[in-house]
Fold each of these.
Amino acid sequence: MTMTLRCLARTAAAGLVAVAALATAGHTAEAEAADTLGSAAAGQGRYFGAAVAANHLGEADYAATLDREFTSATPENEMKWDATEPSRGTFTLAAADRVVDHARSRGMDVRGHTLVWHSQLPSWVGALGAADLRTAMNDHINGLMGHYKGQIHSWDVVNEAFQDGGSGARRSSPFQDRLGDGFIEEAFRTARAADPAARLCYNDYNTDGVNAKSNAVYAMVKDFKSRGVPIDCVGFQSHFNSASPVPADYRQNLQRFADLGVDVQITELDIEGSGSAQAANYTKVTDACLAVDRCTGITVWGVTDKYSWRSGGTPLLFDGDYRKKPAYDAVLTALGGSGDPGDPGDPGASCTAAYTRTADWGSGYNGQVTITAGDAPISSWTATVVLPSPQSVSSLWNGTPTWAGNVMTVSPSWNGTLAAGASTSFGFTVAKNGSGAAPTVGGCTAS
Ligand code: 9MR
C-alpha cells in the first residue's frame, strides 16, 4: 500500500509580499477567484500579455505557460523590419504569422511591434534618399498593416524616436535625418488609413518617469492631439534594473499622458532581480497601471527568464523551468487574483511523503518513506510516522528520528538537499509486537 500526503511550506518572503500587496490593492470579489494573470487582469478590465518568440512555440512548457497565463502576445522580433521586409517589396511574414495564428487561435489579442524603428532595420532602407525613403516607409506600414488588418489590437507605429539623456531631442536615424520631425506624424497618418480599427501607439524606453525624454514625448503627443494627428496610445517599455529602477513618479507620469486623451500601455516590462525585492517592484508597476483608468494593459517582455534578452538578470515572472516566481505571486495578487499555492509551478518549498512496506516476516516488517521535493528545490525536510501501538522501531537508516510518544519525526541524515521533483527515502524496521497495522505517514515539511 502507498500513501501520499501533499504538504507545503511557502517561503516566508513570498507570503509577506502577498500580504503587502493585498493590503494595497483594491479588487473585487469576482476578480479574487482568478488564478491566472490573464483572468485576474480581465477582472480589472485589462489585458496581460507577453512578448513571444515564434521559435519557442514548439516547446510544450513554453506554449502551455503562454496559453494558460496570458491574454495578449507581442511578437518579440518577428514583426520588425529586418524580419518582415529584408529586401524592398519582399514581405517575409511566416514567423510573424506563426505568433499571430497561435495567439488568435487561443483567444489572445496581438500587439504589433514595430513598424518604424531605427534598429533592426535592413541596410537597404538606410541607403535610400529622402523621397524613396518616405515611399518605402509608407509601403512598409501598408504592407504589414494590410496583411494583419483587423487582427492587431495595438500597433507600435514608431519606436524609440527620442534620444536618451537630458536634451529631449529626436534620435538620429535614417528617418529623422532625411525626413525630419514630420516622419512620425506621417507614419501615424499612414497607419490610421491602413487599419482604422487598430490602436496606434508611440513606444519608448526611459520615458517611464517624468524626465526630459518623457517631457519631449509628452509635448509631441499633446501637439498631435491638438492638431488631430491620429495617435491612440503611448507605450512605456519599463525595462528596469538597479541602474534604472521603477521611478517614484511612474503612476503620475502614466496619468499625465492619459490626461492628454490617449491610452497608456506598459509594453515591455521586465525587472531584474529575484525574490521579494523583485516582487515588490512588480507590485509597484502593477499598482501604478491599475491606478490609471486609461492604462489598458501590461505586457512582460518574455515568458521565461531563460529566453529573456536580459536572462542573466532573471527579470521575468517565470523562472527557467517555468516555475512561478515570487514576482508572479505579487502581480497576481496586485491584480486581485489568488493562486493555488499547491499548483504546479509554485516556487515555494514543498514535499510529499509516500510510505511503502518493503518486507514482512510475521513478527516484523520494513517500512520505507520516499520524500519527493515539489516544484522548487529544497534544502531540508521532515516527515512524521505515527506507529500503531504496541509496535516499536528497532532500527532506522538514511534519516534521523526523534520521538514523542508513538510519533516519530524524521529529518535527513545526509539527504536533505533535493532538486525540484527529486526523491530520497529513509527506511526502518518495526517489531509488530502482535499488531500488523500500517503506520500513518505524512506531515512532510520542506525548507
Ligand atoms: O528582445 C529583443 C531581442 O531579442 C532583440 O535581440 C533586440 C534587438 O534589438 O530587441 C529586443 O527587443 C527590444 C524591443 O524590440 C524594443 N525595446 C527594447 C527591447 C529590448 O532590447
Amino acid sequence: MTPTREDERPDPEDSAHTVASLWALRACEVLCVLMFSTAIPWQRVTTWFGVIAALGVLRWWHVNRPWFRASPKPARQRVYRIYMWVLMTYVGSACWFLYVPANLPIQAVLMSYLLGNATLVAVRLTGDVMRTTIALVLAVLPTSLRFIVEGTLDQHNLLVMMGVGGLLMTVTMVFLSRAQESNVKHQVEQRRRAEAAANAVAAMGLSKSRFFAAVSHDLRQPVHAIGLHLDLLMRRGQAAQDRASRRALDGIHQSWRALDDLLSQVLDLTRMDSGAVQADLRPTELAPLVADLVMQHSAVAEAAGVRVVALVRPAAFAMADALMLARVLSNLLDNAIKFSPAGATVAIVLRGARGQWRLQVRDAGMGIPHVAQERIFEEFVQIDNEARDRRRGLGLGLAIARRFALLMEGDISVRSRPGQGCCMTVSLSRAAPPTPAASIAPAHAGAAVDSGPAELGVPPHEEPWPPSVLPLRDVLLVEDDSLVAAATRQLLRSWGLRVRHVETADDALREGAHARADVAICDARLPHGGSGLDVALALRMRGKKVLLISGETNAVLREAAQFHEVQLLTKPVSGPTLLAALQAL
Ligand code: ADP
C-alpha cells in the first residue's frame, strides 16, 4: 500500500514527551502560578494551572501505555488531536481567567506564556497548515483580540502592540507550517518514487531470473542431444575415421564442452539467484580437501611451470558444504595458476581468526588493480579481456564462488597490488570436529539424486566410459523432445538395448502396463503438463526401475525425487553418466 502523508508524519508525542520535558513544563507552570498570584487571587491561578498540569500528566500517562503504543497509527493520531484541541481551547480561555486589566507586566507574562504554548504546538504540528492554524487561533487569538480591543493607542499602546505581535506570530507560524508541509510532501513523493524504482528493479530481476530459467531449460535440450550424439560418434568412429575427420570431431567435442561449461555456469548462477541451491553445512576438515585439490590441479600447474604448496594444518574443521568449498577453492587455484608466471609458487594457507578459518590462495602473478577488486566478483567481468577471448575464461568463476561462499555463511575477499600478486581469502566459521558416528556419513549422504556434472561442483572433465555391460534388455524412453529422444535412442541401442519410445505421460502409463521394459527413462517435464516424476512413480509401482532426467533448475523437483528415492540426472547428461546410472540401477 502506498503511504499517505499522514503515515509519513512522525508521531508528535513519541519523542516530544520525555519525562524531562514533562517536568520542565510543570516547572514553567509553577513559575507562572507565582507570577500571576501577585495580581490575581492565588486560588484562581492555581486551579487554572492545575487543570493544565493535570491534562498534561494525563496525556503523558495515556500515550505511554503499552496498549496505546500498540494501537494503529490513525487511532493514536486521533487521541493526540483530541488532547491538543482540548488543551488549546483551554489555553485560549486564559484571556478571561488570567486577564488583569491595566497590569501591563502581568499582561506581558500572559502573552509570553500563550505564545510559548502556541510555539510548542506549532513545532509539533508543523507541516499541517490547517491544524497549526486552528491550534494557534484557539490559543492566541482571543487574548490578542482582547488586547487590541481594550488597549487604546494613547494609553495602553503596549497592550495593542502585544496583541498585534500575537497576531503576527500566528501568521508567521502558519507560513512556516506551510513551507514545512510542502517539504514533507516533497519527501513523501521522493520516497514513493524511490520505492517504485526499487520495485521495478526487483520485478526486472525476477523476470530476468525467469527468463534465464526458461532459456536454460530450452538450451539444455539441444545441448544434451548433441552431447549424446557426439559421445556415440566419438566412440564408434575413433578407430575408423581418417585424421581430418577425427580432428573435426575433436573440435566439435571441445566446442560442445565449452558450451556445456558456459551453460553449466550460467545455470549455477540462475539456480543460486532463484534460491534453488542450498548449502549442506557440515563440519568439514580442510586439510584433506585442500590436498585433493592440489592433486587435481597438479597437471595444470606442471604444464604452466607453477609450484603449488599447501600450508594447511590437520584437524581444522570449518562449517562448509564440501562440494561448494571445493568448487570455490578450485576456481581460486585455477586463477592463481593461470595468472602466475612460470617458475612462480602458488600457496594455499590456512589462518585462524576469531571464530573463523581463513583459507588464502596466494600467487605472485600480475595482481589486480584496486579499482577492479570488487568488480571481479560480478558476472562476466574480466580484466584486460575486452575481446572476450574464451580461452581466458568466462568471467563467471568468482561470481559463482562468492555466491557459494555466502551460501556457506562465509565470504570471499581479495587483497592485491598490481604487479605484486594476489591473495584471495575465503572466510568460514570454525566447527568442532564431527562425532565419529556423523563422520561416517559421506558429504551428501542424504542425496538420493545424482547431481551430474551440471550440478554443483564438478568442473567439466573428460569422463571415462564405464564398460558398456548392462544387465538389462528393454528400456521405455519417455521423452517429448524429438532431438533428445533420437539421440538417447541411438545411444541406448549402441549398448545393445531395445528401446520403446513414447512422448506423453498417458502413453507411458499405457505402455508401461504391458511392455516388457526393465527400465524407464523419463523426462521430468512432459507435454500437456504431465509430470515425469508421477509417471516414474507409477511405473515403479509396476516393478520397473526408473531414471528421471530433468532440464530444470528446480529445487522442488530435486527434493521430491530425493523424497521418493528416484534417481534424477540433470541435463545435459553425457553418455558415460547415463551408462553409469543405468548400471547403478
Ligand atoms: P575467469 O577466470 O573465468 O575469467 P573469474 O570470475 O574467475 O573468471 O575471474 C574474473 C577476473 O578476475 C579474471 O578474468 C581476472 O581478470 C581477474 N582475476 C581473478 N583471479 C586473479 C588472480 N589471481 N590474479 C589476477 N587476476 C585475477
